[in-house]
Alpha/beta hydrolase (Streptomyces muensis), 274 residues
Amino acid sequence: MTVTTDDGVRLWASASGRGEPLVLCHGGPGLWDMFEDVAAVLGDLATVVRWDQRGCGRSERCAGPWTTDRFVADLDAVRRHFAPERTALLGHSWGAQLALAYTLAHPERVSLLVYVAGTGIGPTSEWRPAYQENLLARLGEDSERLARWRELPAGDQEGAVLQWSAEFEDRERAPEHAERMADPWLGINTECNAELTAENRRGLDTPELYAACRALDVPVLIVDGERDIRPRSAVDSLERALPKADRVILPGAGHLPWVEDPDGFRAALAAVLG
């Protein structure tokens, strides 16, 4: 299925399940939808809408622009197509930041925000050094793997799979989980990744952002994997700012908590959907 944005870019989208709509926002930036398991787990609780962000995955290749405002407008085009009035949103990692930005811009169009494995609204310096240390420690479990990862260029499939393997607490199954993320391999949009990552960092830790979150009259569920290599304390700033936030931390799960604790993830969503 195709959704066309207001500037004519064609976005890949798909809907499955039954019930009220739940639009998913994948991580990255520059990646593609990897939510097959989420759609399967939640399909009896909601009509799950998946889409690839502009210039990524199965969506039309384009020259951007790579800005949060542009992606918020694209998300609104997807929302209008599947939910003319309001929708629940679920964002993961970078997609959690996007879903939050959309909710702050259009609170009347969002019934519920599910913020999964994001990094909060405080400065990046509060969590990124620990993340980098944890990433290198995970990859360094095998010195040859770490050396190979360091020599591969940005956007390389092998390098991405090696890095993604660090995202899982179950070290025995981590390579299998990472390989599944790359199947099919749709290519990383490295320009999109670099520009949106830089813009997102500049927009954090501002008085305006804290004030907007404090004024948000939309229920928010924050879902974390306890063993995410990004310190979960990064999300504390967002939780404190939001007036209508609940938080679920899934023990033994990493950055993709629905993979390592599907039952806990489903239970957390079942409590708020519908």
Remarks:
- The longest helix spans residues 68-82.
- Strands lie at 2-4, 10-17, 21-25, 47-51, 87-92, 110-116, 220-225, 245-250.
- The mean pLDDT is 97.
